[in-house]
Amino acid sequence: MPIQESREVPFYPDDLLPQLQRILAILADVDLQHDIQRDYLESWSAPRKVKDRLLADLDQCHTGNRERLESCLRGLRLEARGSDPGTPRRTDH
């Protein structure tokens, strides 16, 4: 029988959880919108040079947005780690 590794599930205080969920939802929306816009530009009948420039701009903007959101997530995770270890943990999951 294979040995199962025990993985610690991160704990996030109840006051940070809605913020984490909101940022993750925004991140998913940003990715979806990027995919939609990219597909639209790829299928557009403009000259390749124009499309390539617009796609590069779109990708650069998307990367910047993702980096800012990921930075927010890192900050919230650090905040959660710095929370009082005596804080009661959720056990209802």
Strand content: under 5%
Main sheet makeup: none
Using DSSP, what is the number of strands? 0
Q: Kindly report the oligomeric state of this protein.
A: single chain
- Rounded mean pLDDT is 84
Tell me the helix content: 55-70%
Low-confidence blocks of residues: 84-91
Please report the distance between the alpha carbons of the first and last residues: 27 Å
Structural class: mainly alpha
Fold and architecture overview:
With 93 residues, this protein is mainly alpha-helical. The chain has a domain at 17-80. It is 66% helix and 0% strand. The protein contains two helices and no strands. It has helices at residues 17-43, 48-81. α1 (17-43) packs antiparallel against α2. It is elongated, with a radius of gyration of 20 Å. The two termini are 27 Å apart. 0% of the residues are buried. Mean pLDDT is 84; it is low at 84-91.
